[in-house]
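Re: beginner question about structure tokens

> Can someone show what the tokenized structure looks like for a real chain? I only ever see the sequence side.

Sure, here's an example I had lying around. Input first:
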Amino acid sequence: MAAVVGGPVPRGVEPPGLCPDALPDGLLVADADRRVVVFNRAAVRLTGIAKAEALGRDFAGVLPLRDADGRDWWKCLDPYGGLAIRTRHPERPLYLGDGPELLVTASYDREPDGTVRRFTVALRDAAERARHERGRADLVSTVAHELRSPLTSVKGFTATLLAKWHRFNDDQKRVMLETVNSDADRVTRLITELLDVSRIEAGRLEMRRQVVDVAEEARKIIAGRVAAGDSPKRFKLEVPGELPEMWLDPDKIDQIIGNLVENAVRHGAGTVTIVVEPDASTRGAVVAVRDEGEGIPPEAAQRVFRQFWRGHGQPRGGTGLGLYIVKGLVEAHGGTISVRRAPGGGAEFRFSLPAGAPDFA
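And the corresponding structure tokens:
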């Protein structure tokens, strides 16, 4: 039988049907007598107030919130004596006494006559929200910067060709059009990266699983690099052992391996080695991409998968989103990824992939 939400709740007893400590936001629930009956783990973390000190007390005393002008917010709001038709209050920034700024929303559960049965207050960290907003601003700024260069090139060459078409011979026209085509591909890649970041952050990555030969996908990546002009001596593929049947998204596997190989070629040195081997612990596969460059300092190993990360001394180029996207794609398959020093020096990016199951299973 489903838990009934409503009716009197004993003081210090959480309402049935709720799992407050599982919520990411702080939660305070006060009963009809203004006494706190729920004060979850996130609320303890955000306010620094122990749960035992909050339960059973008047909610306004537990959370002495003030607005930017220093006014007592609960006196202004008068939750238990104000309009009986109010159902909720929109989010607004408030201050916990002399403490941190919090983003606060509130809602009411009322009796048929309009009196307050329960008053619920949700709390969020304003500093964390500000960090997220700065991250979004950085993302927009970075992508706009990266888009400006190829779009300027495309505009310049197309305007020149349109205005002076007959002044150029066929070879000159071909060079200009090839440059336009290359820059258009770059814009497409940037937009794809931006969409990938959005889907990863929203948890909306779609997986289209089918049987994938991971070693064969790695061979295709190497063949594509060679066809694009890289020396075949730059790459080595090792497959020590028979791989199990792997149900993966082939496009995303290509993207993962391709980004790691691109990273090794651009920022590493020497031979780029791809090792694909069975993983007994997950009954799946492990893929390692190694280079022979300077490697990544141990203190930076936890930061390489963040948005906009670039190693010290590396030339600026790209959005700095490639490894962040790789991590999101690996985790969407249920795998893990890490970076460490390669056996022969340089960096080794190593990710595991469980065998998975078909989408229709």
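Each token stands for a local structural state, so reading them left to right follows the chain. The chain has three domains: 20-126, 129-202, 210-353.
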